[in-house]
Amino acid sequence: MEMEKKKVLEELKQKFPEKIKEISVQFGDESIIVESGSLLDVVQFLKNEPCSYSMLLDLTCVDYKGQEPRFEMVYHLYSLSNKQRLRIKARLAEKDLWIDSLTSLWKNANWLEREIYDMFGVHFKGHPDLRRIFMYEGFEGYPLRKDYPLRKRQPRIPLRK
Amino acid sequence: MKGSFITTKFNYILGWARKFSLFHYPYVTACCGMEYMSVVSPHFDFDRFGAGWTRFSPRQSDMLVVVGTITQKSAPVLRTVYDQMTEPKWVIAFGTCAVSGGIYDNYAVVQGIDRIIPVDVYLPGCPPRPETVLNALIRLQEKIQKQEQEWRWKRRKY
Fold this sequence. Notes:
- Helix content of chain A is 22%, strand content 29%.
- With 161 residues, chain A is α/β, with parallel strands linked by helices.
- In chain A, the strands form 2 sheets. A 5-stranded mixed β-sheet of chain A has the order 1-2-5-4-3, covered by helices on one side. A two-stranded parallel sheet of chain A has the order 6-7.
- Chain A is elongated.
- Chain B is of the alpha/beta class.
- Chain B has a single domain, classed as 3-Layer(aba) Sandwich (Rossmann fold), CATH 3.40.50.
- A 4-stranded parallel β-sheet of chain B has the order 1-2-3-4.
- In chain B, strand 2 (63-67), helix 3 (75-84) and strand 3 form a beta-alpha-beta unit.
- The two termini of chain B are 23 Å apart.
- The chains are: A alpha/beta (161), B alpha/beta (158).
- The A-B interface holds A 134-136, 143, 148, 150-157, 159-160 and B 72-73, 75-76, 79, 105-108, 110, 114-116.
């Protein structure tokens, strides 16, 4: 099993030498940092044989306020045949919050990406229906960003004091 | 004086009739619903106190039981449900979230349903015990008995 993991990572490094910025192993799970522009190519390679990371477990975003680049997209992949996980990260600058959508590869990316758009304001290239999913029409701002005011309320109907 | 005696008695009888024929509409959104279900089921039995009829239609019910967290997104829905209910109507805020927002002091949650609709009985607890729920119902019945009843032929003061 260990051999298998190493092989995947080495193959990845060979195939995309300048697009993979960093590979690190923590508690037996690998995580790689890719250039945000080439995310779709790398993920497509990982999904198909022989790596066969065929399952998108989760897709989320982290706001590192004060750092540059500020946002980091995190993708969790799982290989059913090899029984191993892989974490893919991509950094995004605040000025250019665009990244490739994975809806062409996985159907479940649709709603996950809508959630990230709703909560962090990251835009996804090629997403079929990029709307808010949790919050309502007319909600302003992105509530999971660190600079969203904690006690800010945006009611839909007038509230009594 | 004679007339006022009759009015008082009528008021009392109407209150007595109303407090034992509460048709309730459960607006269940969260985990408090489990506790609500156990209360309406035979073990604790809401029906012993005359509130057995669960009507899943606001137009035929007169007690709104708001069970669980109300978000800003669903606030207009709750408001509509309340407006659709016919008079006389009463509201129980069931659980801490409905009372005050509870632990959810954030962008999404309404901090207590009394910001949207008037509330008669506040029932705290996370979730409240079934005995507490029954106690809340009894308190509401006391309130209904004591209050001045509205009826169709009554001249309105306002």
